[in-house]
Amino acid sequence: MTDAQASTNEDYAIQLINMNKWYGDFHVLKDINLNVKEGERIVICGPSGSGKSTVIRCINHLEEHQKGQILVNGEEITGDVKQLERLRTDVGMCFQHFNLFPHLSILDNLTLAPIWVKKTPKAEAEAIAMKYLERVKIPDQANKYPGQLSGGQQQRVAIARSLCMDPKVMLFDEPTSALDPEMISEVLDVMIELANEGGMTMLCVTHEMGFAKKVADRVIFMDAGQIIEENNPEEFFNNPQSERTQLFLSQIIDH
Amino acid sequence: MYVTDKILPELPAPSNSKGIVHWLKTNLFNGPINTIFTLLAAFVLYKVIPPAIEWAFIDAIWFADSSSECKLANGDRKDGACWAFITNRFDQIMYGFYPEAERWRPNLAGIMLVLLTIPLFFEKTPKKAWLGGFILVIFPFIAFVLIRGGYFGLEQVDTGKWGGLMLTLIISLVGILFALLFGTILALGRRSSMPIVKSLSVVFIEFWRGVPLITVLFMSSVMLPLFLPEGTTFDKLARAMIGIILFQSAYVAEVVRGGLQAIPKGQYEAAAAMGLSYWKSMFLIILPQAMKLVIPGLVNTFIALFKDTTLVLIIGLFDLLAIIENVLGADNAWLGFHTEGLVFAAFVFWMFCFSLSRYSMALERKLDTGHRN
């Protein structure tokens, strides 16, 4: 792991170097090292409380790390406000609870950031929005409000909203955990399509092992604030090395 | 085992829960105690309402040139209300001591405001934001120049001569506008992560909330001139307005803060994650939702502000109530008609407050976009 420290490579979309984070006295993330190449698709899994969500929330600085470095597109995150605003236009994020803006129509949810952050003309922003709404298969909902949509539709809108900013990296924070079972697949289908198109760097915290098997280049298993195991999906699922991983996999597959 | 292919049809709800008789039974006569209270209330209403109507409408004298028509031959009052007291002095109640020849100026300002505001209530008006901005930013200057004069050949009418309903409305509108603005900024300040901004906001809010408005007005008119260099004059109305604005913005701040705290953390995070700056996320995402939530509290504060404007009497400004009570009430020609004056003042205040309340309810319904996140 020490060699990661030395090489800060521009080819990496994201680099975490010896990242540590505490909540008060609680050490949530311990020496996280991770290099993500451009276009790579990574699934992070692990038991709840393992720090997996915190890792990706640190990448776009929704949480602050206290030690170590985070580099996005070769640039170290310092917490500077202007840098963050720029960086966040390159890094899209989907949340567990969608976090659509309930006072705005679906179309306005999608065009808000392009218009106000990227200064895209309104008509163009709307055309882009409709393009992505079609991609997530709900163009007919454009004029409704988030409260009128099902959970699965809301999450697809949230994905489209992020894509409208044309990000280089997409972070997914348990995008299907708050959904009714019937709606999980409609969201996963959209994510699989996105992954298969290629070009987009994806970091996805999820318990959907089927998704991991289908699209992930690498699977990362975390526990107690540490990366325990990291491997390609085939090896990870068929031949897990650590005992902790074996236990975790046996538990989620049994149910 | 059970299985069915038949989907049951939808049926209308049973109809035994409708009708006036049913309503009366469930709401007014559903038991002996309730029945007694209903009858008692009906009796009280019967005793109070007909005489009140008789006094206010049937026996009332609406127009008269002097108070003698409201009196009996021996000088006692007649039974009905003497609205002539109001109609005879209506102009003064509306404008205070504003010169008669110049009253077209506040009228024009008022009509302009109404005409400019009406289009805002229609969905299809283009460039609504610009119109709203014009009303909030440019129009106050136009109105000030019109009403006070001193420019463009308009005769100057000092603020000391402003009065009546006109003064009440000016103080309230300016007060509401600026209290909302400063209050919102203070609320954001109080939730700021910057310690200096935060503590300044807290100190400001707690100070102004902790003193009675009457003290603030007294201080502004009696104490403040003592601290200013000799000879500095500072308009009395402006001082009163500043006092009211500072005082009410502290209340508005706490109401708005309640709304800000009710917005889920996910909204702040989603806004930030999309690269919106602090101010953009506040104005585009957080405040629109927070303000919608606190409409009832804001309207409450505005109604209080509107009624509190009557306190400017103590620093020598004559608002609607002061004109009726202290100017007309002390007029020898119309002695003894306090009740009519007070009833009229109460009615005017009530009408404005009630309209504000109804409007806010309509606004809440209109802005309701269904489920919150």
Description of the structure:
The complex is a heterodimer of chains A (255) and B (373). Chain A has 255 residues and is of the alpha/beta class. Chain A is built from ten helices and ten strands. In chain A, α7 (181-197) links the parallel β7 (169-173) and β8 (201-205). In chain A, α4 runs parallel beside α6 and α5 (122-135) crosses α6 (151-163). The longest helix of chain A has 17 residues, at 181-197. Mean pLDDT of chain A is 90; it is low at 1-6. In chain B, 65% of the residues lie in helices and 1% in strands. Chain B has helices spanning 20-27, 32-58, 84-88, 90-95, 104-117, 128-148, 164-190, 195-210, 213-227, 236-262, 265-273, 278-293, 295-308, 320-328, 338-367; one strand at 318-319. In chain B, α9 (213-227) packs across α10 and α14 runs antiparallel to α15. The mean pLDDT of chain B is 87. The A-B interface holds A 60, 62, 81, 84-89, 91-93, 95, 97-103, 112-113, 116-117, 145-148, 161-162, 165 and B 264, 266-267, 269-278, 280, 284-285, 288-289, 292, 367, 369-373.
SSE map:
The complex is a heterodimer of chains A (255) and B (373).
Chain A: H1 2-6, E1 12-23, E2 26-37, E3 41-45, H2 52-59, E4 67-72, E5 75-76, H3 81-90, E6 91-94, H4 106-116, H5 122-135, H6 151-163, E7 169-173, H7 181-197, E8 201-205, H8 209-215, E9 218-223, E10 226-231, H9 233-238, H10 243-254
Parallel strand pairs in A: 3-8, 3-9, 6-7, 7-8
Antiparallel strand pairs in A: 1-2, 1-4, 4-5, 9-10
Helix pairs in contact in A: 4-5, 4-6, 5-6, 6-7
Chain B: H1 20-27, H2 32-58, H3 84-88, H4 90-95, H5 104-117, H6 128-148, H7 164-190, H8 195-210, H9 213-227, H10 236-262, H11 265-273, H12 278-293, H13 295-308, E1 318-319, H14 320-328, H15 338-367
Helix pairs in contact in B: 5-6, 7-8, 7-10, 7-14, 8-10, 9-10, 10-12, 10-13, 11-12, 13-15, 14-15
